[in-house]
Design brief:
The complex is a heterodimer of chains A (262) and B (395). With 262 residues, chain A is α/β, with parallel strands linked by helices. Chain A has 12 helices and 9 strands. Chain A has a single domain, classed as TIM Barrel (Alpha-Beta Barrel), CATH 3.20.20. Chain A is 50% helix and 15% strand. In chain A, helix 7 links the parallel strand 4 and strand 5. In chain A, helix 2 packs parallel to helix 12, helix 3 crosses helix 11 and helix 4 runs parallel beside helix 6. Chain A starts with a helix and ends with a helix. Chain B contains 16 helices and 14 strands. In chain B, the strands form 3 sheets. In chain B, strands 3-4-14-9-10-13 form a 6-stranded mixed β-sheet, with helices on both faces. A 4-stranded antiparallel β-sheet of chain B has the order 1-2-12-11. In chain B, helix 5 links the parallel strand 5 and strand 6. The chains are: A alpha/beta (262), B alpha/beta (395).
C-alpha cells in the first residue's frame, strides 16, 4: 500500500481530524519557492502535497493554474526537473506527495518508468485528470505493481455503475470534484458533492477528498464536513505566483483552524 | 487499452471525469440516431435544401490543360452555404443536439469557418451559440468574426497559450465541462474523444460518396487520386472514407509545411516530426517536444495550424491506407493565385494546400488518369490576409 498516504489518513481518522491537501505547481514562480512552500505548507497545517507537473495544455485547469503552468514551463520545468524537486522534498519532509499532471507527459516519458522513477524519488501516487477510469486499466496495473496510488475521480455527474467501478479500484484517496467545470476558486454549494460522497461510502473505505473551488476558511470548513479531506489549489498557487507567499501560508493556517473548530 | 472507439490503437476518451457522462450520453444518442430513418431524412433534407448538396464535381479543364497530364476534378464544397464543408458536420451535430434536448451550442474555431457554420445552425434551430476563438485568429479572420456576430453567436477570445486553435479547443472543452448538462459541444474536425472522430467522419463522408458516384458518371471509373488538405482532417476523412478499401484510388492528405521544417514553424503532424501522443481527448500523432509538451503549430492558414490530427488519419498513415505530405506557405499562396487566375475560383487557403500539391503530383500522372481535389472552402475570408502576404494594401 502507499504507506505514507495510508498512514497519514489513518492517523487523521484516529484523531478525528480532516485532512488538508495543498496543490503546488512545481517551478512556479520558481523552484526555490516551490520547495519552501512545501515546507511551510506542512507547518501551516497541510497533510498532503499535490505536486503539479506542468503541461502545455491543462484541459482540467482554470486560469490560475494555467498561468502557473506557463510560468513553470518558461522556467524550464520538465519531468526530469520535477524528479529532482521530488528528491529535494524528501530531504526535509515525509509528508505524503502525489503528482498531478497530464497523461501526455507521462506517456512520452513512459508511464512505467514514470512510476518507478518518481516512486524511487519519494512520490506516493499520481493524479491524472485527463484519464478517466475507462482508459486507466494498464496504468492501474502498473501502479498496483509498484505500490503507487493512482487517484480516481468522482463528480456529481458520475453515474451509479461508474461510481461503483471507480470506487472498487480506488487507492490512496478518491478525488471528489465539487462541481462541473475546471479548477479555480468560486462559490459552491458543497452539499451536492456531499451527497455524492455519502453514496460513495457504500462502495469504498478509501478516504474521500473534495476539491475544486475551495478558496476560503469558510468554504474549507463547509466542504470538510462531507469528506475526509479537502484539496486547495488555485487559492494557494494564485498567491504564490504573485509573490504573496506569506498570505498563502496564512490562508492554509486559517483553513486548518476553521476545519478543526468544527 | 480501452478498445471502444479506436482506429487501430488510435483514438480513445482521454477527458476529465466531469466530461464522461456527456460523452456517454452523446454516444448513446448517436448510436440511436445514426441509422434512424427520420434522423437521416431530416439530415439529408437540410444538407440538400439548406446547404446545397450535392456539390458539383467540376472538371477543371483549363487547370488540366495547364498541367497537360491527368484530368483534374474539383469537389466543390466551397459552393456550400457558409462557404465550406464545415456545414455538413454542424448540421448533423445540431440535429443531434436538438434531439438530446440541448439548449446551447459551444464550438471552437480556427479560421472561423466552423464557428460560422455552428453559429448558422444555432440560428437555424433556435439555440444559443458560444464560439471560442484564439485572439490571434480573431485578428487574422475579422470577417468571419463579424459574420458569427451577425448570426447571433457570442465570440469569446482566447488568449491563453498562443491564442490559436489548440487553445480555443481547450477553452471550449473547459466551457463544456462547466455547462455540461444543457450544452452540446460541436467539435469542428474529426478530432477529440470518441464518439467525435467517428461521428464527424460520418457527417462528412457524403463528400467521398458523392465523388464516387459523380466520377463514375463523368469518367466511368474511379479517380486515381483524391487529394485533401489536413489540419484536424475532417474534409480529408470525408473524402477518403468511402475510398478506404479501394487500393486503386491513392488518397493523399496535404498538411501545412508552413515557413520551415523547424519546430513551431509548421503543422506537419503526420508528414513531419509528429509522434503519437494525447491531446484533446484522443491518442493520435502529435507535435511535441522531448518532454511531451505540445508544440504550437504554425501555418499561414488559420484552419490548418493544429498540432494534433484526427485519430483515423493516424491509423490511415500507419496502415498505408492514405499517405500524408506537405506544402509550404509559399506553395499554397501560389496555388491560391493560380486557381483564381486559371479557373476563376478563389479557393480557401486551407484548400490551396491540396491544390499546391498538384505541382508535385501532376508530372507523375498520365492523361488517361484522373485526380480529384477536395476544394473544401472558398477563399473570400482569406483575401485580406493574402493581400497582406503579397504586399498589397487593401485596408
Amino acid at each position: 500500500m502507499s504507506t505514507r498516504i495510508d498512514n497519514k489518513m489513518a492517523a487523521l481518522r484516529a484523531a478525528g481530524k480532516k485532512g488538508i491537501f495543498i496543490y503546488i505547481t512545481a517551478g512556479a514562480p520558481d523552484v526555490e519557492t516551490t520547495l519552501r512552500a512545501v515546507k511551510e505548507a506542512e507547518k501551516a497545517g497541510a497533510d498532503l502535497i499535490e505536486l503539479g507537473l506542468p503541461f502545455s495544455d491543462p484541459m482540467a485547469d482554470g486560469p490560475v493554474i494555467q498561468t502557473a503552468s506557463v510560468i513553470a514551463l518558461k522556467n524550464g520545468m520538465s519531468l526530469k526537473k520535477e524528479l529532482e524537486i521530488m528528491r529535494e522534498i524528501r530531504k526535509f519532509t515525509q509528508i505524503p506527495v502525489v503528482g498531478m499532471g497530464y497523461i501526455n507527459n507521462m506517456y512520452h516519458y513512459g508511464f512505467e518508468k514514470f512510476v518507478k522513477d518518481f516512486k524511487e524519488a519519494g512520490m506516493d501516487g499520481v493524479i491524472v485528470p485527463d484519464v478517466p477510469h475507462e482508459e486507466s486499466g494498464e496504468m492501474r496495473r502498473i501502479c498496483a505493481e509498484n505500490d503507487f496510488a493512482l487517484v480516481e475521480f468522482i463528480t456529481p455527474g458520475t453515474t451509479e455503475d461508474r461510481m461503483q467501478e471507480t470506487c472498487k479500484d480506488a487507492k490512496g484517496f478518491v478525488y471528489c470534484v465539487s462541481n462541473n467545470g475546471v479548477t479555480g476558486v468560486k462559490k459552491i454549494d458543497y452539499s451536492t458533492i456531499g451527497a455524492v460522497c455519502a453514496n460513495a461510502r457504500k462502495y469504498t473505505d478509501t478516504p474521500l477528498a473534495i476539491g475544486f473551488g475551495i478558496g476560503s476558511p469558510e468554504a474549507a470548513a463547509e466542504a470538510a464536513q462531507y469528506a475526509d479531506a479537502i484539496i486547495v489549489g488555485s487559492a494557494v498557487v494564485g498567491r504564490l505566483i504573485k509573490g504573496k507567499e506569506q498570505e498563502a501560508m496564512d490562508l492554509i493556517a486559517a483553513m486548518r483552524a476553521a476545519i478543526d473548530a468544527k | 487499452m480501452n478498445t471502444k472507439g479506436r482506429f487501430g490503437k488510435y483514438g480513445g476518451q482521454y477527458v476529465p471525469e466531469i466530461v464522461m457522462p456527456a460523452l456517454n450520453e452523446l454516444e448513446a444518442a448517436y448510436k440511436k440516431y445514426r441509422n434512424d430513418p427520420d434522423f437521416l431524412n431530416e439530415f439529408r433534407f437540410y444538407l440538400n435544401e439548406y446547404a446545397g448538396r450535392p456539390t458539383n464535381l467540376y472538371y477543371a479543364k483549363k487547370l488540366t490543360e495547364h498541367y497537360g497530364k491527368a484530368k483534374i476534378f474539383l469537389k466543390r464544397e466551397d459552393l456550400l452555404h457558409t462557404g465550406a464543408h464545415k456545414i455538413n458536420n454542424a448540421l448533423g451535430q445540431a440535429l443531434l443536439a436538438k434531439r438530446m434536448g440541448k439548449k446551447r451550442i459551444v464550438a471552437e474555431t480556427g479560421a472561423g469557418q466552423h464557428g460560422v457554420a455552428s453559429a448558422t445552425v444555432a440560428a437555424l434551430f433556435g439555440m444559443e451559440c458560444h464560439v471560442f476563438m484564439g485572439a490571434l485568429d480573431i485578428e487574422r479572420q475579422k470577417l468571419n468574426v463579424f459574420r458569427m456576430k451577425l448570426l447571433g453567436a457570442k465570440v469569446i477570445p482566447v488568449s491563453s497559450g498562443t491564442g490559436t486553435l489548440k487553445d480555443a479547443t481547450s477553452e471550449a472543452i473547459r466551457y463544456w465541462a462547466t455547462n455540461i448538462t444543457d450544452t452540446h459541444y460541436i467539435i469542428g474536425s474529426a478530432v477529440g474523444p470518441y464518439p467525435y472522430p467517428e461521428m464527424v467522419r460520418d457527417f462528412q463522408k457524403v463528400i467521398g460518396e458523392e465523388t464516387r458516384a459523380q466520377a463514375m458518371k463523368a469518367i466511368g471509373k474511379l479517380p486515381d487520386y483524391v487529394l485533401a488538405c489536413v489540419g484536424g482532417g475532417s474534409n480529408a476523412i470525408g473524402m477518403f472514407y468511402d475510398f478506404r478499401n479501394e487500393t486503386s484510388v491513392k488518397k493523399i492528405g496535404v498538411e501545412a509545411g508552413g515557413r520551415s521544417d523547424a519546430n513551431g514553424d509548421n503543422a506537419k503532424t503526420l508528414s513531419g516530426t509528429g509522434i503519437p501522443g494525447i491531446l484533446h481527448g484522443a491518442y493520435s500523432y502529435l507535435l511535441q517536444d522531448d518532454d511531451g509538451q505540445v508544440i504550437e503549430a504554425y501555418s499561414i492558414s488559420a484552419g490548418l495550424d493544429y498540432p494534433g490530427v484526427g485519430p483515423e488519419h493516424s491509423f490511415f498513415k500507419d496502415t498505408g491506407i492514405a499517405q500524408y505530405v506537405s506544402v509550404t506557405d509559399q506553395e499554397a499562396l501560389d496555388a491560391f493565385q493560380r486557381l483564381s487566375k486559371i479557373e476563376g475560383i478563389i479557393p480557401a487557403m486551407e484548400s490551396s494546400h491540396a491544390l499546391a500539391y498538384l505541382e508535385k503530383l501532376m508530372p507523375e500522372t498520365t492523361p488517361d488518369q484522373s485526380v480529384v481535389v477536395c476544394l473544401s472552402g472558398r477563399g473570400d475570408k482569406d483575401v485580406q490576409m493574402v493581400a497582406k502576404a503579397l504586399g498589397e494594401d487593401i485596408e
